[in-house]
Structure formats: C-alpha cells, structure tokens
Amino acid sequence: MSSIAFIGGGNMASCIIGGMVANGFDPQKILVGTPSDNTRQRLASSFGVKTFADNHAAVADADVVVLAVKPKMMREVVESLAPALSHQPIIISVAAGIPVAALEQWLDGSMAIVRAMPNTPSMVQSGATGLYTRATLPLEHRQLVDSMFEAIGYICWVEEEALIDAVIAVSGSGPAYFFLVLEAMQKIAQELGLPKQTAEGLCLHTALGASRMAIESGVTAADLRKQVTSPGGTTQAAINSFQQQGLEDMFRQAMTSAVDRAQTMSKDFSS
Ligand SMILES: NC(=O)c1ccc[n+]([C@@H]2O[C@H](COP(=O)([O-])OP(=O)(O)OC[C@H]3O[C@@H](n4cnc5c(N)ncnc54)[C@H](OP(=O)(O)O)[C@@H]3O)[C@@H](O)[C@H]2O)c1
Predict the structure, then answer these.
(1) CB 36, CB 8: distance < 8 Å
(2) pLDDT band at 1 (very low <50, low <70, confident <90, very high)
(3) Do 30 and 17 touch, CB atoms closer than 8 A?
(4) Whose CA is nearest to atom 1 of ligand 1?
(5) Angle at Cα 26 formed by Cα 22 and Cα 32, nearest 5°?
(6) Secondary element (H or E) of residue 222
(7) Residues near ligand 1 with C-beta < 6 Å?
(8) Element (H, E) at 70
C-alpha cells in the first residue's frame, strides 16, 4: 500500500485522515508532519497514524504528499519542503486559491501536482471535492487520489484549472448558502408559530430528505420540484413568490461574486 504524508494536521487533514482510516487505509501508512505536540498527540491517539515534528521526516518515503496548511503559510512551508521531495511524490494541495503554477515555482521541480477542493461536510464524510491536475497521472495514482477523497464524500475532476474557482463557488462556499436558507426557514417557521425545536427539526429533516431524494431518485431537481408543485396549491404559491422576486438572479450574482473573489485570491498568490 502507498504511503501518504500530510503536511499540516488541522481540520481538513483530520477530515481526510478520518475518512481514509474509516475506509480501510492502513493508519501506519499515513504520516503527518505538523508542529504542535497537541495536534500530533490528537492525531496519533484518534487515528493511530505516525506523526512527525519535522516535515522532511514525514515526507521522506511518501508516495503522496498532501499540503494541508493555511494558504498564507503555503509558500514558506513548500519552499522549505522542496529539498526533501527529490523522490518525486505526487503532490496534492487542498489550499484554496493557490494555483498549480505557484506550487510548481515554489517546489522548483516537475512533480505531478493535484489541486483538491474539499468542503466542510467532509467532516461527516458527506463532502464534495473538486479535483484538477494537468499532469498525466498513471491509472493507479489516479485511483489512489480518487479513493482518498471518496473516503470523505463525492468527487469530481475538472478539465481546466479555472474551473476550480467554479467549484469553490458551488461546493466550497455552497454549504454556507444552504445554512443561510436553513437559518431563514427556521426563523420564519417560528414566526409562523412553531416552537423553536420543532421549527429546527422540520427544516433540517426537510433539507436532508430533499437532498437524499434528489441523489437517490436520479430525477433532476427541476422535475422533482414540478412533481411536488400541484397547480394552484401551497407549494406553487411559495415558488411563484420566489421566482417573482428573482431568486435565480440572486444566486447568479452571489455565486459570480464568489468566483470573482477566488480569481482575485489566485492572482495574489501568482504575483
Ligand atoms: N477547513 C475547510 O473546510 C477547508 C476546505 C477546503 C480547503 N481547505 C484548505 O485546507 C487547508 C488547511 O485548512 P484547515 O482548515 O485544516 O486549517 P487548520 O485547521 O488551521 O490547519 C492548519 C494546520 O497547519 C499546521 N501547520 C502550521 N504551520 C505548519 C508547518 N510549518 N508545517 C506543517 N504544518 C503546519 C498547523 O499545525 P499545528 O496544529 O500542529 O499547529 C495546523 O494543524 C487550507 O489551505 C484551506 O484552504 C480547508
């Protein structure tokens, strides 16, 4: 089995490691370089992985290196790691907004680089991850990367790096859009007279049920909506109100703003 080193043992690394271990990856083949004693102890006791204070020791024999530090730390961490990567492992960066070209420059080499954009529901193994590489990965390497991220949820590959910015606007920021809708529905459910706990339970389970139905039925969201919208009924009254107030345009503007922000962040790291 391949050995996989994580540089940075924080929230996202913990999610991926937790999912991998739950899906049968050998924890002794997972190596984590991270500076704090507390983080190393937590990872070793929660998952049984090997931990290192020295990043070079963590990556020495790794087939895959996952860069999971904050974007602002990435340049410093990657440049100091580069001399320990002469064995050319696959590099996976989960950092938002750092383009492949910047990583190539900091690594000073010709390693296969994958960008991965997971999201926070990865914490409950219900994430959605967009992946991009311009390297030609051998099939077994591609399958290894797939299995790492499938361990935390749904995955998809995009063909162009620019589309990672769209992934950020859709699934990276997307959980917050649904939280915002839930927040509004829960508040209004209480205004309509339901007790707080009932309002929260109804809204949460409606969101879960709608999502499961859309995933499991294979029917499009548009068709499911039409199926539950009887002419002249209550749902139609609500949907008409959303549409008259320009719901789709509101989402278009919001998600385009997220793409614009992701592009600006990428440019900052490219300069
Ligand atoms: N959280 C998300 O939902 C999410 C989603 C998509 C992408 N990402 C990306 O994931 C990356 C990590 O985010 P996060 O949320 O996991 O952040 P985080 O919880 O703050 O974790 C960052 C980790 O980096 C470690 N670190 C700091 N300096 C280091 C160094 N010199 N060498 C090795 N490790 C070092 C810290 O180690 P200690 O704990 O040992 O101090 C910390 O555990 C970011 O680039 C972010 O853009 C996160």
Answers:
(1) no
(2) confident
(3) yes
(4) 12
(5) 95
(6) helix 221-227
(7) 7-13, 33-36, 39, 55, 68-71, 73, 77, 94-96, 117-120
(8) none
pLDDT band for position 108 (50/70/90)? confident
Would you say the pTM of this structure is higher than 0.90?
Answer: yes
Which residues lie across from 32 on neighbouring strands?
Answer: 6, 51
Topology (CATH level 3) of domain 4-167: Rossmann fold (3.40.50)
The protein residue with its alpha carbon nearest to ligand 1, atom 19, reads 10
* Letter string b/e over residues 156-184, b meaning 16 or more CB atoms within 10 A of that residue's CB: eebeeeebbbbbbbbbbbbbeeeeeeeee
* Placement of tokens 């899906």 in the chain: 23
Task: For 117, list phi and psi in degrees, rounded to 5.
Answer: -125, 85
Model pLDDT for residues 109-160, shown as the tens digit of each residue:
778 999 999 999 998 999 999 999 998 999 999 999 999 999 999 999 999 9
Cα–Cα dist 3/270, whole Å: 30
Q: Where in the chain is the domain with CATH 3.40.50.720?
A: 4-167
Mutation to probe ligand 1, out of 7, 12, 41, 125 (largest number of atoms < 8 A from CB): 12
Percentage of residues in the chain having pLDDT higher than 70: 99
pLDDT the model gives residue 271 = 62
Inter-helix orientation angle 11-22/139-150, to 10°: 100
Domain 174-265 class, CATH top level: mainly alpha
Are 85 and 63 a contacting pair, CB within 8 Å?
no
Q: What percent of the chain has pLDDT over 90?
A: 92
